[in-house]
Write a structure and sequence with these properties.
- The protein has 245 residues and is of the alpha/beta class.
- Helix content is 26%, strand content 20%.
- The chain has 9 helices and 10 strands.
- The strands form 2 sheets. Strands 3-2-1-4-7-6-8 form a 7-stranded mixed β-sheet, sandwiched between helices. The protein has a 3-stranded mixed β-sheet with strand order 5-10-9.
- Helix 1 links the parallel strand 1 and strand 2.
C-alpha cells in the first residue's frame, strides 16, 4: 500500500524549492512506496513528481489567512487526491531519519508532536501529524462558521486542534521530532560559540519561527530589533546541508 504525505504551500516565504527538498528527503527516508500531495497557491517550479492541488478554501479573517490557521482546511469531509490516513509535514523541516514508523505508530489514533513550549505538555505541535481524512470535520466547520470566536478561545491553531479534535490522540516519541530553536540551539551566550548538534535518533527537525533551514545553515538569525540581535544568534550549521537536499 502506498503511503501518503501531505504538505501545504502558500505565499512567498517558502519557494518551490522547499517542496522539492521535502520530496527528496521523503524519498530517501522511506522504504515503502510513498507519494507527496501538495496543496499550493502556485505550482510553478514544483517537481512534477509531486501531486499538486489548489489551495483549500477556508473562511478566515484577513489577518489569519496566511498563518498556520490555514492548515485547518485539511479537516474537511474530503480531501482532493487523498483518502484514508495521511502524514502531514510542514515545508520548513529537515528529515533526518526513517518516516515509515510514523505510519505505524499507535494505529487508529491522531498522532502529533508534543509541543516544546507548552508548560503542561498537553498541546500538540502540528508541524508533523498523522490524521484520517474526514475524521474531525467539526474543526473546519466551526472555523468556517465562527472564526473570530475560535481564535479568541484558543489563540492558535494547534491548541484548537489538540483541545477540540475529540479523537484518541498520541504524541510521537520525544526523540523522533526535535525543534531546532527549542531543542538544538545552545542557550545564550553559548549560541555564539557552539554549533547546534543533531541528536542521534532524531527523524524530523522542525524550524518553528526563525531561523529557517537556509538561514541556520549559513549562520543567519534574522532579528526584528536591535536588542533581539544581542541574544538571537546561530553559528553556521554544516549538518543541515547534508540532510536538507
Amino acid at each position: 500500500m502506498t503511503q501518503t504525505v501531505v504538505c501545504m504551500k502558500w505565499g512567498e516565504r517558502y519557494p518551490a524549492d522547499y517542496a522539492n527538498r521535502l520530496w527528496s528527503m521523503i524519498k530517501r527516508h522511506t522504504k515503502r512506496p510513498t507519494r507527496l500531495v501538495c496543496f499550493a497557491d502556485h505550482a510553478e517550479g514544483i517537481d512534477p513528481a509531486i501531486e499538486v492541488h489548489p489551495l483549500l478554501d477556508i473562511n478566515l479573517p484577513t489577518r489569519l489567512q496566511w498563518r498556520p490557521w490555514r492548515k485547518i482546511a485539511l479537516w474537511g469531509e474530503t480531501l482532493p487526491g487523498v483518502t484514508g490516513e495521511a502524514l502531514y509535514l510542514d515545508l520548513d523541516i529537515i528529515i533526518t531519519g526513517g518516516l515509515d514508523d510514523f505510519f505505524d505508530y499507535e494505529p487508529g489514533k491522531f498522532c502529533v508532536i508534543r509541543n516544546w513550549t507548552t508548560s503542561n505538555g498537553g498541546v500538540g505541535n502540528t508541524t508533523a501529524y498523522r490524521f484520517r481524512v474526514g475524521s474531525a470535520t467539526h474543526l473546519l466547520e466551526r472555523i468556517n462558521r465562527e472564526p473570530e470566536v475560535v481564535y479568541k478561545e484558543f489563540g492558535n491553531s494547534q491548541t484548537y486542534v489538540t483541545r477540540a479534535i475529540g479523537l484518541p490522540m498520541a504524541f510521537w516519541p520525544d526523540d523522533w521530532c526535535v525543534s531546532f530553536k527549542h531543542s538544538l540551539l545552545p542557550p545564550w551566550p553559548l549560541n555564539f560559540v557552539a554549533t547546534p548538534k543533531l541528536p542521534k535518533g532524531a527523524r524530523i527537525v522542525a524550524f518553528t519561527g526563525k531561523p529557517d533551514p537556509d538561514e541556520a545553515m549559513e549562520g543567519r538569525y534574522p532579528a526584528s530589533s536591535w536588542w533581539k540581535k544581542v541574544y538571537k544568534h546561530v553559528r553556521p550549521t554544516p549538518w543541515i546541508a547534508e540532510h536538507w537536499r
